[in-house]
Every structure is written in structure tokens, then in C-alpha cells.
Amino acid sequence: MSFLNNLEWRHATKIFDTEKKVSDSDFEKIKEAIQMTPTSFGLEPFHVKIVTDQAVKDKIQPVSWDQPQVGSCSHLLVFCARTDWESRINDYFEMASGGKAEIKEKMNPYEQMMRGALKDRTEHQILDWARNQAYIAHGFALAACAELKIDSCPMEGFDNEAVNKILGLPNHMKSVVMMPIGYRTEDPHHGKVRYPESDLFS
Predict the structure, then answer these.
(1) Of 1, 17, 22, 52, which residue is most buried, by most CB within 10 angstroms?
(2) How far apart are CA 88 and CA 90, in angstroms?
(3) Can you tell me the distance from the alpha carbon of 39 to that of 116, in angstroms, rounded to the nearest whole number?
(4) Cα separation of 37 and 30, whole Å?
């Protein structure tokens, strides 16, 4: 049950040790976990901006309720929803077919089904859909960090538009949730508070 033990170990770290950095090899594992995230139609309509530049983190912290984990973390992961679903579908089937026309032709019914499912959605609905997928990836990243004994903190408390501007995001990307990672300066003073299973499941 090491996975559950690691989830018990993790907590929302508020201040990171600025002298300890996540290794390249461990960070690659986190990226692989995000890449393996299951998403709607397999389209992965999200993008993760990786911020390690201290100057950029220092710009983001004031628009994140001045929370210290932003400036003290090793890496700041900003999960962004992508709304460019048409080009995403194009790229998906190009990869899935290996660029071979005959294979792509066989996949055409599935492609048309996907396009039909998304084409009548409003811009707001597409953003909501993509945001949900980004949150799944965010959850996988949190779990991967726990497995690697890397501390993290899920964050919604920030000015999305300000972060979009600081990162220079294109119009089809919107920041939705952030995750600073690194190593805690001290263990939490209190244990987790969680509702009982009887409240969560029926």
C-alpha cells in the first residue's frame, strides 16, 4: 500500500526549501506521468508551462495572493486549458495514422464523431471541457510527486488573466491551476482532516 502511504505523506506545502531543487531525472518522471493522463477523446487539450526562472516566479507571486510557495518552489507548473480543438484533432489523427493516408481513412468515422461532438459547443463550453482535462493532469502530477517524495501544492488562488499575460500565453491557452513543487522546509504541524468514507461514498 505504498501508494496510499505516499498520499498520506503529501501535504500542501506552503514554503519550499530554496536550496533544494528537483532533479532533472525526477522531473522527467513527473512530465511522463502528466503525459500519460487519460483525457476526453485522448486529445490532451491542455499545456503545462514550466517556470524555473526566479524573475518570472517573482512576477507571478504578487498576483497569486502573494503566496510564498510560488517564489520559493523549485519548479512552478502552470496547467493551461487549450481551446484549439480543431487543430488538436488534426494533430491527433496525424500522429495516430503515422501520416499514412490509408490508415487515416479507416479512422475517419471516429474523427468525424469527435468533430461532431465538439463543433456545436460554445467557446465557454469548450473552455470548461478543456479545463476539466487539465485538472485530471494536475491530479496525476500531484500523485506522481507523492510517489517521488517531492512536495507540491495545488493552487487556484491566483489572477488567471495576470498569469496569462506574464507567461505570454496565446489566445487559445488559459491558465487554470498551478502546482509549485520542491521540498518542504518542515513537516506539517497537523495531520490531514478528511471526511469519513460514509460521507464521501454511497
Answers:
(1) 22
(2) 5
(3) 17
(4) 11
